[in-house]
């Protein structure tokens, strides 16, 4: 009885939050730091906290549906940094990579998915099977025409992304026969941006980080320069639709000054 009453109250509250967003300014691009999988599993009583990665991977599918339903067409999901892959226990990393292959990549290639997949990060630091699964997902969704784009940030480091973008720009200009002095005179932020992983997409308007951490951890350092930030104490697998709607409501209530 109590569970049904609680469920009805939750549904009513979610509808009220959704109604408050009608006509509101919503982000075109939401970036998400999906943090707290292991802590959620520990809190839920699982002996093996690595199971949190499966719940976290499956939950991404649900959150993408919320974004699609409300019309948010660009999402960047921070799955794992280069440091995560290098410093964490090999068993945990193997488990995480398996979840990416079995859950994220597989579900995104279903015929019912509207998301076009893009990878953002160093694929060379990933296991061959994970790299292959993500490349297949990119190829399988390349021709999706709904205009929904998902960037999977894996093997990612924000400083390295900027460095690589500048390196690629210099190499491109060098092949065109331009001198260093000439390149320096013409160098612009827009030129660098065209060589970032998210080239051609709008910068994130809103960055959401779960688990209570209040830092960016090198995530989208260039692109998120003027993003609104939303931190929530909820662990990623427990991030509910009402938490998502609250983040959007908070965003809609802010006056964006873009650094001013």
Strand and helix layout:
Layout: H1 2-20, E1 29-33, H2 37-44, H3 51-70, E2 74-81, H4 82-87, H5 90-108, E3 115-120, H6 128-141, E4 148-156, H7 158-175, H8 180-186, H9 189-193, E5 206-209, E6 228-231, H10 241-253
Parallel strand pairs: 1-2, 1-5, 2-4, 3-4, 5-6
Helix pairs in contact: 1-10, 2-3, 3-5, 5-6
Separation, N- and C-terminal Cα atoms: 52 Å
CATH architecture designation: 3-Layer(aba) Sandwich
Identify the strand order in the major beta sheet: 3-4-2-1-5-6
Gross morphology: globular
| Contiguous uncertain segments of 5+ residues | none
Report the β-strand fraction as a percent range.
5-15%
Helix content: 40-55%
Supply the CATH class. Answer: Alpha Beta
Q: How does this model look, in words?
A:
The protein has one domain (26-253): Undecaprenyl pyrophosphate synthetase, CATH 3.40.1180.10. The model has no long low-confidence stretch (mean pLDDT 93). The chain has a six-stranded parallel β-sheet with strand order 3-4-2-1-5-6, with helices on both faces. It has ten helices and six strands, in the order αβααβααβαβαααββα. The protein has 260 residues and is α/β, with parallel strands linked by helices. The chain has helices spanning 2-20, 37-44, 51-70, 82-87, 90-108, 128-141, 158-175, 180-186, 189-193, 241-253; strands spanning 29-33, 74-81, 115-120, 148-156, 206-209, 228-231.
